[in-house]
Amino acid sequence: MEKVYTERQEELKHVSTHGVAERGEVATDQYGQALVEFDARRERRLCWKIDLYIVPTVALLYLFCFIDRANVGNARLAGLETDLGLKGYDYNALLSVFYISYIIFEIPANIACKWIGPGWFIPAISLGFGICSICTAFVDNFAEASGVRFLLGVFEAGMLPGIAYYLSRWYRRSELAFRLSLYIVMAPLAGAFGGLLASGILKLSHFGGLHSWRMIFAIEGIITCGLALISFITLTDRPATARWLTQEEKDLAIARVKSERVATTEVLDKLDKSKILRGIFSPVTLGTSFIFLLDNITVQGLAFFAPTIVRTIYPNNSVVSQQLHTVPPYVVGAFFTVLFPYLSWHFDRRVMLFIVSAPLMMIGYIMFLASKDAMVRYGATFLIASGAFAFGALCNANSSANVVSDTARSAAIGSTVMFGNIGGLISTWSFLPSDSPDYHIGNGLNLATSSCILILSIALLFWMKMDNRKREKVDVDAKLAGLSLLQIQDLDWKHPSFRWKP
């Protein structure tokens, strides 16, 4: 087999990128080896151009997506519970309503994103959740607030997986985690920026006829709507339709993505039920999704309850001071959100960084449970944020890297984020009023989940390596004998030449 592969490589050394960019043409041989050699300098120039045109827009949209989701925590400090007459567990129930719709619409939203096209779908849902945020400024009771939060979940469901899927159309496997981090870093920055923005808004005497927490929802929602309208113009579906790329750059962008996908004849395949199921039920998708579920209990818990936790640490400070104290942990968390995916890009590894991140969270929750000192607990929030936020980029990149087709990738990313938001739903009940001010149940739960992440990540890494060793012994020619090209493509990650990429 090695001799055949060497001869084939010599024959195909001079295949053009234009040839493998064409629809109906494969970019790998049946052993999964690329059919063309790429100029590293041209690739770097192309990546830089894509970075400048695509990443800033999706990053800003996701920033305000997360702000519009988490600003209810800032509004709580500014009197939302009192004005709406919330009692007991009403606040937790209000948070849960958002996640019910968010979970239900997660996978359908990502399939719709593929069908409609990200260039239209992402701006449209951004406009939708911006309008929902504005509407929250006018609610007067629990029922109205719950209805708006449910609709917010419907529109936001497609955002995180939609952008991850969108970027997978443009970047290689090793490049994707770092690019995902450049917009997922907006989650911790939203915690920091959201706190600063809320503090600034609350200093206003009024906004139109609105006062206090209502101004937060209205102003932030208007900003979101403005960004969404701009993105209708700036986002483009895929490399082939990008007006800002030359034809040569379009060919290169398509060819280099195809060159990592065994038996793929077109980057954007048609929706196919078997490939959707391959994406959802890949062992790596399921394992990664469960890890993301556990991590999101921490991430979403921080987003919703960080202001409340800070209030228990500094009970005598003013509301504005409490809001500002939520900022520094998020800034540190944002640094690690980019650092770990950058290392992933450099080493083309993802699961190993799961293993590195989990102990940071574990140590943070141990500090919170073991000490009543305010500064120790405040320091713990820095460690927790440092370990937790990077999983958003790493988990989605891991699910994306371990399927072949575009359809399977859409389903895999949608599944991963859906599981993550089940974790978000759990997080809304992890810090209960009856458990304050020390929140032993919430912190104990998060210590358990971060410990499970460490164990599961190690198990996933060993399984991927073990299964790859089994695949090395398979006779590729014998396995593919008699199969049509369509049947071979439907194999996706079951293709004998496919290897898991941890």
TrEMBL record:
GO terms for molecular function: transmembrane transporter activity. Its main location: membrane. It comes from the Eukaryota. It is found in: Membrane. GO terms for cellular component: membrane. Residues 54-469 form the Major facilitator superfamily (MFS) profile domain. Pfam families: MFS_1 (PF07690). It is a multi-pass membrane protein. The chain crosses the membrane at residues 50-71, 91-113, 120-139, 151-168, 180-201, 213-235, 280-307, 327-344, 351-370, 376-399, 411-432, 444-463. The keyword Transmembrane helix applies. Keywords: Membrane, Transmembrane, Transmembrane helix, Transport. InterPro entries: MFS, MFS_dom, MFS_trans_sf. PANTHER family: PERMEASE-RELATED (PTHR43791), TRANSPORTER, PUTATIVE (AFU_ORTHOLOGUE AFUA_4G01000)-RELATED (PTHR43791:SF48). This is Putative MFS transporter.
